[in-house]
């Protein structure tokens, strides 16, 4: 599970965001599991926001679920931000391809512009363009604390891949036949030589189409034990995946689904 360096960040996940009810408790949980540092980022007139970092590199953030989102039934979850050159143009492409825009493009002063969207099957994600131009290059892909893998559990894997490929230029790499579980389609970037994530048709236990994010940890067994010891639950794993990595999938204390990936047990 590695990522090739590309000239432009366009089409890449550049931020991961947790929304829930108790940010402080969630930040403490993930600090024990992944090793993130959490720092409040107070901006005048903005909602409270906590920034997560690994070794000084910003990985993601945390915030309470906005009242309007809670009224729509949004529960604790992780969401990814995909970098685009033009947020509003990308949002228009989302709707033209059958997706939906839940929140049109809006500016975060001094940070950038974002929009909340969903693919045609209902999996949500963010479009983002930072205010300063291209984001800084991330550390090595296997660095602990970074998002090491992204995985779409789609209503229809083939149709979903066509949507994202048309929107972001993602390219097909190896397709793995998982038998009763269907085809697991790896994807990368045009001109790249590494895998960046995977797309599959969701299993019945997945309640709805969604993106799942895998956070890097040094060793999977110790990390899984930390999940249990700090009030989380392991739903699946440890499992060895192609390439020699190990994964677990689990729920944090508020029920948000997340996953971990490590180079060893």
Topology summary:
Blueprint: E1 13-20, H1 23-33, E2 37-40, E3 50-54, E4 57-64, H2 67-71, E5 77-83, H3 87-96, E6 100-108, E7 112-118, E8 124-130, E9 147-154, H4 157-168, E10 170-177, E11 183-189, E12 197-201, E13 210-216, H5 220-229, E14 233-241, E15 245-251, E16 257-262
Parallel strand pairs: 1-4, 5-8, 9-12, 13-16
Antiparallel strand pairs: 1-5, 2-3, 3-4, 6-7, 7-8, 9-13, 10-11, 11-12, 14-15, 15-16
Number of E-type strands: 16
The H-level CATH homologous superfamily of the largest domain, spelled out, is 2,3-Dihydroxybiphenyl 1,2-Dioxygenase, domain 1
Question: And the CATH topology of the largest domain?
Answer: 2,3-Dihydroxybiphenyl 1,2-Dioxygenase, domain 1
Strand order of the largest sheet: 2-3-4-1-5-8-7-6
What's the mean pLDDT score? 91
